[in-house]
Amino acid sequence: MSGAAESLPEYPLQRAAECPLAPAPAVQELRAAKPITKVRIWNGSTPWLVTRHADQRTLLTDPRVSDDDLDPGFPYVNAHRAEIAPVTPRLITNTDAPEHTRLRRTVNGPFVVKRIEKARPAIQKIVDDLIDTMLDGPNPVDLLTALALPVPSLVIAELLGVPYKDHDFFQSSSSLVLDSTAPPEKAREVSGALSAYLDNLLGEKMTDPGEDVLSEMGGRVKAGEMTRTEAVHMGVAMLIAGHETTATMISLGTLALLQHPDQLAVVRETEDPKVIANAVDEVLRYLSIVQTGVRRVVKEDIEIGGVVIRAGEGIIFDLHAANWDPEAFPEADRLDVRRPARTHQAFGYGPHQCLGQNLARLELQVVYGTLYRRIPTLRLAAGIEELEFDHTGTTYGVHSLPVAW
Ligand code: HEM
Does the CA dihedral 307-310-316-322 come out positive or negative? Predict the structure, then answer.
């Protein structure tokens, strides 16, 4: 490694122990002093780090900025991601227009607001049932296992059209696939079983379609708009992309609200669904849980903010830094559930902006709108300094969240 590379800040940057929900202090300093600057990552490579809200919007919609993770300049999150890139099928997560546009069009339909809203009663029932069970069980309890983890997996099972009789299999295999501490061979075996299961279910839905996402993809496979393999991979991708993220927004979101009792009171006491919806976006902004940033590689030289990003260089977009940019959100370090928060970038920005954002918003609206009302005395059953935060995963989170009432 060159001396110049060694002197660069090492990304990801460290959060301050006393402010576990705030972005790393150094990332905030970079945003003020060097908003587009080089950093060093795990493999010694030196991609650019973009921290301002406005610069992220400009670059994430620039067609020269690519999601092609086969490009040698791509700034992989870790060694595992670098290793699997060449054997990963081309999906919406690693293609550019026009291929990305084609693939995204085949899966967008079920995720538009109008379609997603139809799932509200089913999601409300899932959340109500889990809270019933929680209230009947031990007190204190870990909110992660009681509510945060089961909600997204039950919801995605419902949305994909997994029959009720298979929920146990689906739930246990998906949590194993998502468990980063599981032995790799076990994870591979279960992941294979899950793909085979989804492939089989897709086949059934192609002959006997229902109102679910797999049936919709089955129709597209029959029409020749996507391959069967793409449909199965998309099913698995939806499960993985939506699980830990949504679960974390339930657990860490609850922690953030418990830390701000005046804000929690607004959420608990409102009769207005718009207030809940805005609170969800504000907590998304405040926490910006995708802590490894959005990663891209540049295909042609780009001049921006007095620097030239050369073709073949990587870029990391730090979402938390952008969402705490005072030019976009005055007093950004304040959790204020009534502020206009919708322009946050917690779901990314541009063509790859989160496919499941309307679903995630809906799940969180139901949870935030139900949990604190039904359990108004909910409180943390441990000191915040006792909580173990996950600093290494794609998603920032807590390993468990003991709560009592
Ligand atoms: C609070 C929960 C969630 C957060 C914070 C989140 C965050 C993100 C972010 C930041 C991206 C952009 C990645 C990039 O530009 O490279 C993304 C993409 C994506 N998300 Fe989510 N996500 C959430 C929930 C979900 C759910 C529930 C699903 C289920 C369908 C989902 C599926 C996806 C997919 C498939 C993509 C790739 C889209 C593309 O590349 O075109 N996400 N998400």
Answer: positive
75-106: pLDDT as tens digits? 999 888 888 889 888 889 999 999 999 999 98
User: Distance, CA 242 to ligand 1 centroid (Å)?
Assistant: 7
- Atom 25 of ligand 1, residue of closest alpha carbon: 242
Q: Is the pLDDT of residue 329 over 80?
A: yes
Reply yes or no on whether the pLDDT at 316 is more than 80. Answer: yes
Residue 127 alpha carbon to ligand 1 centre in Å: 22
Average pLDDT over residues 213-238: 91
The H or E element spanning position 142 is strand 141-142
Instruction: Give the distance (Å) from ligand 1 centre to CA of residue 350.
Output: 12
Instruction: Output the domain CATH number for residue 372.
Output: 1.10.630.10
Closest CA to 249 of 141, 137, 122, 368: 368
Whether 77 lines ligand 1, by a CB cut-off of 6 Å, is no
Task: Using the Cα atoms of residue 235, residue 239, residue 245 and residue 251 in order, give the sign of their dihedral.
Answer: positive
Question: Which residue range forms the structural domain that includes residue 350?
Answer: 3-404
CA of 377 to the centre of ligand 1 (A): 33
Q: Say what the pLDDT of residue 178 is.
A: 67
DSSP-derived secondary structure letter, 40: B
Q: Quick one: pLDDT band at residue 163, thresholds 50, 70, 90? A: confident
Whether residue 313 is predicted with pLDDT greater than 80 in this model: the reply is yes
Number of domains in the chain: 1
CA 402 from centroid of its chain's CA atoms: 23
pLDDT of residue 3: 65
The finding on whether 241 has its CB within 6 A of some atom of ligand 1 is: yes
